[in-house]
Design goal:
By secondary structure, this protein is of the alpha/beta class. It contains 18 helices and 16 strands. The protein folds into 2 domains: 283 residues, 3-Layer(aba) Sandwich (Rossmann fold); 180 residues, Rossmann fold (3-Layer(aba) Sandwich). Helix content is 35%, strand content 15%. The strands form 3 sheets. Strands 3-4-6-8-7-9-10-13-14-15-16 form an 11-stranded mixed sheet, sandwiched between helices. A 3-stranded mixed sheet has the order 1-2-5, with no helix packed on it.
């Protein structure tokens, strides 16, 4: 009997070994069978990612350009050097040098001028040709990164069967210091290096994303704050044309683009703080010295806005991007955009005085506001106050600044684009944060955890409380996914969302109970009739 058992056990062992051997042959011939292929072939070489617990593949820290160091500092991005071994894409690359930020975690990550890398999340590295969503982070063009926990693309990829790309681009003086007047033609593009980095990343997506299961012909760029400004600017940049099919811009328009004269003045101030007088001096600075001079500039000389941001340099930006959009530069791009109801209340975290600033002296606290209001400050304040009889002067100040800095400039972009592209949609996010006794309202950046469906990421509790509505997050992420797939944000989980035009001005009110409203806050909007908010007149 024991011999029979031994024989039976031996047969089972042999059968098991044969099965594993056959499985090994199958996996060798068809590496995607029985498990996901972790290797993708790019134009620079093979990259190997990792399988996350959600079942999504993640490829992190892939270089999309040469390190912009040494002689390449302050120069446009160059194609990456190819590699022969398989690149292990399992760790995020260093983030662009920066100072501490109010939200997110970029300032606590490893920093380096060698920061031009991107990250990919995909359901599978196969031939399915999924829609691609490319995220451009915000942070005032001086902070942030594509590897921030808030921007983890796995939720989008898992929920929507889409490929998500996040990226780093050069920030601050290293990405937006205009040196055309200091270094001559060789450095004429330096004021827009961060934008050129974004274009280089989009070219990488065009050339490589098919290997990650994505469709290079169906790319949506989306971003928030400075990332939203970048999205809108890319819509007006000739060299970005054709690199994306759709665009989503969250709380950032084209009113903060700088002209050459202003940018040259910022450069002079920066060099003074850095203690240098020419290009040789700038190139000799350490990264820490650059960030120190940049910090001094923004603390002592900077204005509310983007002193280190895109420049209408006649080359990368031949004209104000809003003018280009109005001429049809993005006529083939489907567009979704919007703002939050109480954008400027975000800065109450850092500038509490703004909460009680008398409205008649608001311009003293926000110098850029006086450029728009001038002698009309009191009349406009009275107009806003009349429609808010129970509001404090501080509340009215917040409403005016939100409209000047965000909502009305965003409306100018959607007006221009809707005249060229019927598939244009506008939203207003109104869910209020309960923290700090509700003083933040529906402030800047509050929609981000909902869009990415990361309601419990680092710092979110302090920003939005313990119980933000999951239903709203699901609905908003499904909206972004639907738009990325078809150019239409409508889906079964929300009311019908009509396209925007200047006759009805249909706007989706995004909160726990979404609804459509035509021309919300119409009288406030009309206060600003005749002001283009195009970064030129006024330069806001």
């Amino acid at each position: 009997m024991s011999d029979n058992r031994t024989l039976l056990t031996s047969k089972k062992l042999i059968l098991t070994l044969l099965i594993f051997a056959l499985l090994g042959v199958v996996l060798a011939v068809f590496p995607g069978c029985g498990g996901k292929n972790l290797v993708a072939q790019t134009s620079s070489g093979k990259v190997k990612g990792e399988l996350e617990t959600t079942g999504i593949l993640a490829f992190k820290g892939i270089p999309y350009a040469k390190p912009p160091v040494g002689k390449l500092r302050f120069k446009p991005p160059q194609p990456p050097e190819p590699w022969s071994d398989t690149f292990k894409a399992v760790m995020f690359g260093p983030v662009a040098p920066q100072t501490e930020n109010q939200i997110g975690s970029a300032s606590t990550q490893e920093q380096s001028e060698d920061c031009l890398s991107l990250n990919v999340w995909t359901p599978a590295a196969d031939n399915k040709h999924r829609p691609v969503m490319v995220w451009i982070h915000g942070g005032g063009f001086t902070n942030g990164s594509g590897s921030d926990e808030w921007y983890d693309g796995s939720t989008f990829s898992e929920r929507g069967d889409v490929v998500v790309v996040t990226l780093n681009y050069r920030l601050g003086a290293l990405g937006f210091l205009y040196l055309g007047g200091v270094g001559g033609p060789e450095y004429a593009k330096s004021g827009n290096l961060g934008l050129l980095d974004q274009v280089a990343a989009l070219k990488w997506v065009r050339d490589n994303i098919a290997a990650f299961g994505g469709d290079p012909g169906n790319v949506t760029i989306f971003g928030e704050s400075a990332g939203s400004m970048s999205v809108c600017t890319l819509m007006g940049i000739p060299r970005a044309k054709g690199l994306f099919r759709r665009a989503i811009a969250e709380s950032g328009a084209l009113n903060l683009v700088n002209n050459v004269n202003y940018a040259s003045g910022v450069t002079g101030q920066f060099m003074s703080y850095a203690g240098v007088t020419d290009m040789a001096g700038l190139l000799s600075l350490t990264t820490k010295q650059i960030i120190k001079a940049q910090s001094d500039l923004l603390d002592r000389e900077g204005r509310v806005g983007t002193p280190l941001g895109p420049v209408i340099d006649g080359s990368v930006l031949p004209e104000p991007p809003l003018h280009a959009i109005a001429k049809g530069s993005a006529a083939k791009v489907d567009f979704l955009t919007g703002t939050n109801l109480d954008e400027v209340r975000f800065w109450l975290i850092a500038v509490p005085l703004l909460a009680v600033a008398p409205i008649q002296t608001a311009a003293n606290y926000m110098p850029m506001l006086s450029k728009a209001l001038g002698a009309y400050t009191n009349a406009i304040a009275a107009s806003y106050k009349a429609r808010r009889p129970k509001a404090t002067d501080g509340d009215v100040t917040m409403a005016i600044m939100t409209d000047v800095m965000f909502r009305v400039p965003q409306i100018r972009v959607v007006e221009a684009q809707s005249a060229e592209q019927p598939k244009t949609f506008m939203y207003l996010f109104t869910w209020p944060s309960p923290v700090h006794d509700g003083i933040l309202g529906s402030c800047h950046a509050l929609e981000l955890p909902f869009v990415f469906n990361h309601l419990h990421a680092t710092n979110t509790v302090e920003f939005m409380g313990n119980n933000p509505p999951q239903k709203l997050a699901d609905m908003m992420q499904d909206t972004w996914i639907a738009f990325a797939k078809t150019g239409d944000p409508n889906h079964k989980g929300m009311p019908y969302w009509p396209a925007y035009n200047t006759q009805t001005r249909a706007t989706m009110i995004l909160n726990a109970n979404p609804s459509v409203k035509n021309d919300p806050y119409s009288e406030d909007r009309q206060v600003w009739n005749g002001i283009p908010f195009d970064s030129m007149t006024p330069s806001l």
